Inverse folding.
């Protein structure tokens, strides 16, 4: 037993703890605990009233048992009794028990609140602090309701003791975090800000956490804190190490307060007032200077505290991103740390430099450290440091060093820890794409990736290389040659077989001239891998084979032989069997012309942002890939590889990521996008395949009946409709109260516009939640899948979503859905399906309200669901003559809507086409006399009526302007479409 | 803001737990298990910071005890190390040459000292003198 018997030794407790420690086994421990529990229970139930000391002792024992990991289901009442004891230690144990064991929805809260109220009113500072601690520890809503009004008063009252002020400030912070709606600063704001001037350093230290949090939420109201913070910081920075007495920590004056001040300033842009700014810059310079001075102590505490301030100052410099001189100094300082013997400093320097790399002022300075960083990647013993080094290499990569960095990352990959391989693979894939000037290098890099770390190459990566090869004809021959060589290896990864199968199936002819890679050699090579592969890969290979028959008629008999073999045509897997049967039939029935049309080379993929980037972002969680980086990647990837701004993110990506092995790898269904050449073959394909009855989704814009019976129950209008009561009170209420849905986010219109030309993608994302959307529409019906992803490590509690149709939208749209699970685990994703029926044309968007509790705080978000009228478009193909005839018929002024506007994206005709197709209309070729112009036609399908629409878009490249004209039989439709479409270019 | 602080022994026995956000008991146990596994599995001479989900784990070993804090993303790692050090100093000041046993047998005191020092996951008082004084005062109060 330890010699300690400071304060009140509770002997019984010490004996009990000793007993537990002496237990030889878990069973013995449980036995001893049960004995004790029985004893305590009998004491509590006994007739004899217990004195305060015994009560305290037993409550403390229960607490100990609970902390050992056992459940405690009694004793709460006794603990609450202790709260009203006059003896400090009894009260203290009572509060401790409550803080640890009482969860926020306990029935005892009322009693506890009463005791707290008494203690707060007692004017005894020690009691008041205990009560405030209890509120902060439990932090429940009931407590917030009871005390949120009182605490600010205690905080700013002139006669409150310093120690109570400190507790009050942090208690209020906790309540503000759990129930922001209940804490009203209003009249107190200025007095709270002025706590920054308080004489007592402890009060400032506590208050600044509160002020920082409030400033983040209400920057305008708390703006006055900037100058106060700067002058406080300046006084600390310039003070001698002894000035601040006990607030000096190992010769560093007030490190906690300094760091908090620097953090508070990061809530704001650089100070506008020149004098304040000058003073701040001086502080930052002093901090940087001090880093160069010899240490005042050899203790690690001294250097940690000093460097903590330095790193925070660097964060502020990076946050301002406006002082080139300071940025470069910061970078040099971090450069020194990169070689420091303390692992912690190397880690932090790598991390901090990562953000520095994205500033235009310091990017070059960061790049000078490339060798050190590469060395860190190779030699650091700690995987988390290596991870930071990989992050930094990724961040500092640009065209000048991409080849070096990619090569280093590839070689690191061979020995990298399993935990970070996938991420490195994604990074290499992105860098290779982003900075590819020479596409043979890109192809080599990706194939190397597959060779080195095939298991970690996700589908997105190999889909992407195929998309790029398809879209770039200058690299196709090289790609074919390279995969052919890669497949020579006796053991190659299945992903390599997939890429190889696809590319040879498309472009094998480009290398067929060489007898070493003649068609038969190619086929035999692929087929030698067939039996080792999984079903989806085999399915892909079968498709490659049928493409071979088209490319190389001389392989026909060999391949037919293979298809005809029992192992194919009677394969137990239905997908493989079906492909074998169909391809065999197709190759024997169809004429070479038909075959050539059906199996034509894949058309270029519509341009979109790289799905790999999204994947990396998802993997890394919030903040890891900065938004600017993403935007940047999108821009660059778009302009360099396929020439065009990033639009159209998901259509093909979702195709590609369908898990079903039957995903149409050969694009037999690609006609949906209205690519002219496929339409002719469409009907033929239906005939050929009709026996088997599945591949029948082959397109053709006119085949309406066929699409009509796909999806959606027709009785959808009756059952679980959006509750009309809910719908009616959905008019955005301005109150931020917890019960009302929040008004729609200001950016929700913008988010809506993002989805006009696409059906899938990420609708919304903040630091907690990501909402993804997949949707499909047929006729006047639609189905939308919402994916709610919890990005945090904590559960979302009480998760609920509500879809409402405000105002007259109720009679125009019919949306049905089922409630989601109320609990979303950390890192988990829940899905919700909406069935949508368009009753008549509409203008407004339905609202989606999401509410949940995260760490006790109610989150309340309202967004507009991207269901727009154009989703119900049915494309209509027509000849030039018909088009103009209809155009003239719709010549009344109210039938037309027109807009002239400036281009906000590059005017690339391929991108424009992609967007117009995404809109859902048919893009009509050879109609407009001016080939630069685009005309489209479609019919909007609603339950009540159909509205034919014609669209004409006239780009003027010189002026960077567009004129957009819409004509339809209904005024509201023309107007709405015109608004929506004009936002897209 | 600190989300939680855990003290556990080299054998993975939890000695003190303080949670600054409301989490269910089951979840707490799960997190505790994960933390002890991660931290005890670290090799020597590695850095004291670990990325874990959206949090940063800062840990340090003092004799037989591991101190382990989960901080939010923007919190300062180095100062978190010193925060743990200051807590150790406070314990040491109170118990005199503090050891694991002191914390086992006087766990309630360890909590009281922590409460004087931190509140709601933020630092309340950094002065060693002030904290020690108020702890001593409360010890006096019982008589």
């Amino acid at each position: 037993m330890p010699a300690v018997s400071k304060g009140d030794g509770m002997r019984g407790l010490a004996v009990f703890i000793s007993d537990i420690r002496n237990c030889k086994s878990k069973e013995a421990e449980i036995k001893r605990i049960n004995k004790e529990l029985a004893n305590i229970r009998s004491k509590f139930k006994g007739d004899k009233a217990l004195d305060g000391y015994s009560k305290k002792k037993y409550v403390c024992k229960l607490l100990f048992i609970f902390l050992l990991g056992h459940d405690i289901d009694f004793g709460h009442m006794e603990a609450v009794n202790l709260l009203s004891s006059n003896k400090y230690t009894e009260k203290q144990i009572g509060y401790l028990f409550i803080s640890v064991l009482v969860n926020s929805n306990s029935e005892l809260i009322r009693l506890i609140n009463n005791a707290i109220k008494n203690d707060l009113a007692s004017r005894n500072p020690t009691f008041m602090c205990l009560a405030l601690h209890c509120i902060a520890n439990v932090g429940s809503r009931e407590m917030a309701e009871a005390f949120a009004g009182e605490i600010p008063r205690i905080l700013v009252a002139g006669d409150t003791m310093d120690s109570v002020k400190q507790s009050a400030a942090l208690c209020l912070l906790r309540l503000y975090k759990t129930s922001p709606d209940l804490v009203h600063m209003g009249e107190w704001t200025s007095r709270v800000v002025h706590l920054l001037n308080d004489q007592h350093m402890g009060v400032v230290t506590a208050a600044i956490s509160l002020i920082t949090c409030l400033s983040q939420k209400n920057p305008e109201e708390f703006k006055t804190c900037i100058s106060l913070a700067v002058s406080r910081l300046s006084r600390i920075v310039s003070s001698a190490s002894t000035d601040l007495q006990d607030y000096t920590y190992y010769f560093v004056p007030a490190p906690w307060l300094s760091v908090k001040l620097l953090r508070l300033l990061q809530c704001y842009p650089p100070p506008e007032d020149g004098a304040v700014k000058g003073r701040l810059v001086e502080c930052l310079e002093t901090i940087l200077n001090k880093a160069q001075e010899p240490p005042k102590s050899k203790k690690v505490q001294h250097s940690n505290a000093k460097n903590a301030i330095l790193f925070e100052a660097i964060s502020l410099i990076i946050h301002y991103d406006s002082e080139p001189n300071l940025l470069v100094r910061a970078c040099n300082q971090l450069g020194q740390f990169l070689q420091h013997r303390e692992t912690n400093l190397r880690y932090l320097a790598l991390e901090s430099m990562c953000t520095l790399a994205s500033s235009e002022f310091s990017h070059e300075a960061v790049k000078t450290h490339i060798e050190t960083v590469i060395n860190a990647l190779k030699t650091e013993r700690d995987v988390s440091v290596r991870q930071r080094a990989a992050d930094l290499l990724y961040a500092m990569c640009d065209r000048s060093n991409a080849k070096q960095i990619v090569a280093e990352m590839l070689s690191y990959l061979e020995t990298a820890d399993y935990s970070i391989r996938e991420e490195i693979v994604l990074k290499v894939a992105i860098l290779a794409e982003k900075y590819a000037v020479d596409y043979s290098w890109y192809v080599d890099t990706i194939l190397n990736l597959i060779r080195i770390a095939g298991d970690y190459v996700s589908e997105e990566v190999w889909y992407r290389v195929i998309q790029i090869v398809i879209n770039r004809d200058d690299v196709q021959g090289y790609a074919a040659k390279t995969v052919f060589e890669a497949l020579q290896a006796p053991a190659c990864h299945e992903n390599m077989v997939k890429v190889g199968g696809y590319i040879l199936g498309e472009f094998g002819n480009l290398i067929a001239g060489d007898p070493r890679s003649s068609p038969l050699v190619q086929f035999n090579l692929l087929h030698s891998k067939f039996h080792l592969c999984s079903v989806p890969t085999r399915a892909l290979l079968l498709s490659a084979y049928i493409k071979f028959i088209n490319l190389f008629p001389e392989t026909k008999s060999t391949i037919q032989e293979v298809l005809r073999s029992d192992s194919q045509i009677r394969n137990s897997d239905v997908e493989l069997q079906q492909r074998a049967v169909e391809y065999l039939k197709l190759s024997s029935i169809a004429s070479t012309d038909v075959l050539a049309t059906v199996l034509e080379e894949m058309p270029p993929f519509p341009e979109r942002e790289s799905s790999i980037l999204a994947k990396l972002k998802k993997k890394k969680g919030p903040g890891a890939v900065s938004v600017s980086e993403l935007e940047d990647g999108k821009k660059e990837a778009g302009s360099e590889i396929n020439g065009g701004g990033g639009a159209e993110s998901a259509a093909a990506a979702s195709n590609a990521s369908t898990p079903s092995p039957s995903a149409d790898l050969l694009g037999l269904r690609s006609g949906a996008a209205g690519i002219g050449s496929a339409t002719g073959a469409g009907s033929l394909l239906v005939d050929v395949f009709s026996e088997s009855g599945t591949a029948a989704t082959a397109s053709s814009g006119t085949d309406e009946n066929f699409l009509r019976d796909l999806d959606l129950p027709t009785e959808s209008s009756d059952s679980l409709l959006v509750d009309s009561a809910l719908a009616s009170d959905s008019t955005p209420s301005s109150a931020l109260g917890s019960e009302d849905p929040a008004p729609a986010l200001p950016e929700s219109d913008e988010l809506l516009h993002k989805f006009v030309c696409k059906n899938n993608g990420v609708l919304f994302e903040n630091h907690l939640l990501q909402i993804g959307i997949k949707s499909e529409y047929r006729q006047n019906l639609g189905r939308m899948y919402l994916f709610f992803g919890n990005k945090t490590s904590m559960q979302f509690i009480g998760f609920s979503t509500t879809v409402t149709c405000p105002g007259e939208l109720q009679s125009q749209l019919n949306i049905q859905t089922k409630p989601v699970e109320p609990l979303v685990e950390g890192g988990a994703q829940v899905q919700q399906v909406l069935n949508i029926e368009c009753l008549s044309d509409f203008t407004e968007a339905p609202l989606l309200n999401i509410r949940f509790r995260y760490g006790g705080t109610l989150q309340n978000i309202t967004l507009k669901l991207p269901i727009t009228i154009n989703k119900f478009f049915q494309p209509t193909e027509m000849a030039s003559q018909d088009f103009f005839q209809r155009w003239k018929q719709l010549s009344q002024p109210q039938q037309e809507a027109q807009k002239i506007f400036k281009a906000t994206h590059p005017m690339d005709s391929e991108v424009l086409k992609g967007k117009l197709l995404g809109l859902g209309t048919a893009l009509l070729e050879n109609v407009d006399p001016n080939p630069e112009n685009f005309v489209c036609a479609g019919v909007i399908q609603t339950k009540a009526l159909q509205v034919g629409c014609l669209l004409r878009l006239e780009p003027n490249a010189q002026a960077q302007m567009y004129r957009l004209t819409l004509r339809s039989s209904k005024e509201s439709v023309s107007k709405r479409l015109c608004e929506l479409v004009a936002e897209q270019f | 803001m600190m989300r939680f602080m855990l003290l556990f022994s080299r054998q993975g026995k939890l000695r003190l737990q303080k949670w600054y956000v409301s989490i269910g008991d089951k979840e707490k146990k799960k997190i505790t298990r994960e933390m002890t596994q991660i931290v005890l599995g670290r090799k020597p001479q590695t850095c004291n910071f670990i990325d874990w989900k959206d949090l940063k784990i800062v840990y340090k070993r003092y004799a037989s005890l591991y101190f382990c804090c989960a901080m939010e993303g923007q919190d300062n790692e180095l100062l978190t190390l010193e925060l743990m050090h200051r807590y150790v100093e406070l314990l040491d000041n109170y118990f005199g040459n503090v050891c694991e046993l002191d914390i086992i047998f006087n766990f309630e005191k360890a909590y009281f000292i922590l409460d004087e020092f931190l509140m709601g996951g933020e630092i309340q008082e950094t002065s060693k003198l002030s904290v020690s004084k108020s702890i001593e005062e409360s010890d006096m109060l019982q008589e």
Observations:
- The first strand of chain A starts at residue 248 and ends at 249.
- Chain A touches chain B through 85 residues (CB under 8 Å).
- Residues 300-320 of chain A form the longest helix (21 residues).
